[in-house]
TrEMBL record:
Keywords: Hydrolase. One of its GO terms (molecular function) is hydrolase activity. This is Alpha/beta hydrolase. InterPro entries: AB_hydrolase_1, AB_hydrolase_fold. It holds the Pfam family Abhydrolase_6. Residues 63-277 form the AB hydrolase-1 domain.
Length: 285
């Protein structure tokens, strides 16, 4: 894997810089950092202590209400994983070690070293690895139904083996929440947009093959950071039993909380409840 370089610049998240001042207030600042010579988008919004977020399956094609709720009290920093919307470079990551190093560099270049970190689904697998392998990188950790584990007695559902029209119901308790996330934005290229969404799924599969199992169970005991494990009570992808396995395995203090009315990507189904749970956890002494 090539040595990472860093380029840090400011952009507007829309196609062109908007003139509407209210729009400017509501939109996050968009920055770009380089990892292995490839650009990765970083969103930043809010004030207060820094809080990083690594998104789940599909990444973040657009800013979502969950992030706005967090930004009311925190400086929310959202780096896009390689291959996810807003980033490239996943094709040069050939094994799990390549991915771990790349994500570490991404967090460092996004100004998240030593900050609190939230990770969901695919992003949760890497958030857990960051806390386990580089303990100084993560202050406090929130994991929302992370990949990385596999139990033959209670197997996870493989989202890559599903028909496209079934994915929405697997990701969210209310499938329209997923459909709204991945809907083509105004002004986007109708041909390129499906390719970008397919690339995000490919990147996640490349990172987590096979069956989302990165042998994370072996590294959980290395996590010293206080950890909140959040799970949607209607998650058809990751069994709830995994939440208790994580909390019981980490070295640091761990607690489990279930989010009612939420599926795998709980932050899409219940943005206010998930944000409130995270803020309450981070406020603990």
């Amino acid at each position: 894997m090539r040595i990472a370089r860093c380029r840090y610049e400011r952009r507007w998240s829309g196609v062109a810089r908007p003139d509407n001042l209210e729009y400017l207030v509501n939109e996050p600042q968009t920055l770009t950092v380089d990892v292995n010579g490839f650009p990765c988008r970083v969103w930043r919004k809010g004030n207060g202590p820094k809080l990083g977020f690594l998104a789940g399956f599909g990444g973040l094609p657009r800013w979502v209400p969950f992030l706005d709720k967090l930004a009311e009290k925190r400086t929310v920093i959202v780096p896009s994983l390689p291959g996810f919307p807003g980033a490239t470079g996943h094709t040069v990551l050939d094994n799990h070690l390549d991915w771990v190093i790349a994500v570490r560099q991404l967090l460092q270049r996004a100004d998240l070293a030593g900050a609190d970190l939230v990770g969901s689904s695919v992003g949760g697998a890497f958030a857990a690895d960051m806390a386990a392998i580089f303990p100084g990188l993560v202050k406090r950790l929130v994991l929302m139904a992370p990949f990385g584990l596999f139990d033959e007695k209670d197997p996870a559902t493989d989202p890559w083996a599903q028909r496209a029209d079934n994915v929405a119901g697997l990701m969210c308790a209310e499938p329209d929440n997923w459909r709204q996330l991945v809907a083509i934005p105004e002004g986007a290229n109708s041909i390129e947009w499906p390719i970008e969404m397919t690339r995000a799924s490919e990147a996640a599969a490349r990172a987590l093959w096979p069956l989302g199992n990165t042998q994370l169970a072996k590294r959980l005991p290395l996590i010293e950071a206080p950890t909140l494990v959040l799970w949607g009570d209607n998650d058809p992808i990751m069994p709830t039993s995994y939440a208790h396995t994580i909390a019981a395995s980490i070295k640091g203090q761990g607690q489990v909380q279930t989010i009612a009315g939420a599926g795998h990507l709980a932050y899409l189904d219940q943005p206010q409840a998930v944000a409130a749970a995270i803020e309450m956890f981070l406020a603990q002494k």
